[in-house]
Amino acid sequence: ETETRDHKDPTCIEPGYTGDTYCTVCGEKTASGSAIPATGHSYVNGSCTNFFFPSRSLSQSVISWITGAAK
After folding, report:
1. What sign does the dihedral 31-21-7-36 (CA atoms) show?
2. Which of 2, 25, 43, 60 has the fewest other C-beta atoms within 10 Å?
């Protein structure tokens, strides 16, 4: 049996990662993941729908990202 570790979802400005596959019995890494391209910006009513908080405007999301509030 295996599990995926280190998965990261992409954002509009940062790439993601599919995660590495590990054996759940011995812990050995059996397969390496791959990069997921950044999604780019997609706007609906002036708000980017791909950046942390779809309900916030792009500027609000950037402020949240800079201050660490999005984590």
Report:
1. positive
2. 25
Token output for 7: 């998965």
> Which tokens belong to 44?
């609906």
Per the listing, tokens 């993601």 go with 16
φ/ψ (deg, to 5) at 52: 55, -65
| Residue 69 DSSP symbol | T
pTM (two decimals): 0.60
Considering Cα of 23, then 26, then 32, then 38, what sign does the dihedral take?
A: positive
Mean pLDDT of 46-60: 58
Query: Tokens 């800079």 appear where?
Result: 66
Higher pLDDT, 51 or 7: 7
> Which helix (H) or strand (E) element contains residue 60?
helix 58-67
